[in-house]
Design goal:
The protein has 249 residues and is α/β, with parallel strands linked by helices. Helix content is 27%, strand content 35%. It has two domains: 184 residues, Rossmann fold (3-Layer(aba) Sandwich), CATH 3.40.50.150; 52 residues, N-terminal domain of TfIIb. Helix 3 packs across helix 4.
Length: 249
């Protein structure tokens, strides 16, 4: 589990290069949510499962006081290096999102890029409790997630990227177990070095599938107000495939 965030952490930004290009649009949308849905001014943010920090850095660039937390030190090392290079002051801490050790410190908590899918039904309840504890009254939690029931089992998908002269060939399989609402996310990453040397890594993660309705029901146990939006707009349309959970404390 989690090879993508440990042995492959240095390659994460190259693998998700195209998604990194969309981060500014995501943060535009999240700022819209802060203004419209939070019941307090948002200044201080905890970015959970921050990974290599793409959304974390963008939030800091826009003037928020941001803390990034991730389970994996390898991801945080990349994030810290990027923040230093950009002259941004961000506190990065290693920790489990289920055990956030902050008491009513944040105006907002964010969790980007499907990270919430790592939590099964029991853990997602623990996650929400942990988030609510970290939030100030009127603060807001924002997390995005896809619905993989539709077209999730096709594969393999193969593509390539470059990273500092190395060539990456990435092959993905996504196997959905509809009855269990589990997504087996399997990925082979082959790295071709300029001298002809090759290395291969296999990622085999289990993610948990939630429909917008299930997410709403689960979140309602912890938050005073819950909204589910479609992708980058404050409404949910019938054919939306990516959702944004908003929970207000
Ligand atoms: C898909 S990546 C998203 C990273 C980042 N949010 C982004 O938008 O690029 C998922 C991240 O979740 C982190 N993660 C998984 N389980 C976690 C947990 N229990 N607590 C904190 N972070 C966790 C992984 O280490 C990884 O960095």
């Amino acid at each position: 589990m989690h090879e993508l965030y440990t042995v492959l952490a240095e390659y994460y930004d190259a693998i998700y290069r195209r998604r990194a290009e969309r981060v500014r649009d995501e943060i535009d949308f999240v700022e819209e949510i802060f203004k419209a849905d939070a019941k307090r001014d948002v200044k201080k943010i905890l970015d959970l499962a921050c990974g290599t920090g793409n959304p974390t850095l963008e939030l800091a660039k826009r003037g928020y006081e941001v803390t990034g937390m991730d389970l994996h030190e390898e991801m945080l090392e990349v994030a810290k290096r990027k923040a230093k290079r950009e002259g941004l002051t961000i506190e990065f801490i290693q920790g489990n999102a289920l055990e956030v050790d902050s008491n009513q410190e944040f105006d907002a908590v964010t969790m980007f890029f499907s990270s919430i899918m790592y939590f099964d039904e029991n853990d997602i309840k623990k996650l929400f409790s942990s988030v609510v504890k970290a939030l100030k009254s009127g603060g807001v939690f924002v997390a995005d997630f896809p619905c993989w029931f539709y077209g999730g089992s096709d594969g393999p998908i193969v593509w390539d990227e470059s990273a500092d002269g190395e060539k990456l060939v990435i092959t993905d399989w996504r196997i959905v177990e509809p009855g269990l609402q589990k997504l087996h996310f399997k990925r082979l990453v082959q790295i071709l070095k300029p001298n002809g040397e090759t290395k291969s890594f296999f990622v085999n993660d289990i993610l948990h599938i939630y429909t917008p309705r299930e997410m709403r029901v689960l979140a309602k146990e912890s938050f005073d107000e819950v909204k589910i939006y479609g992708h980058l707009k404050r409404r949910l349309d019938p054919n939306d495939r990516r959702y944004w959970l908003v929970g207000v404390k």
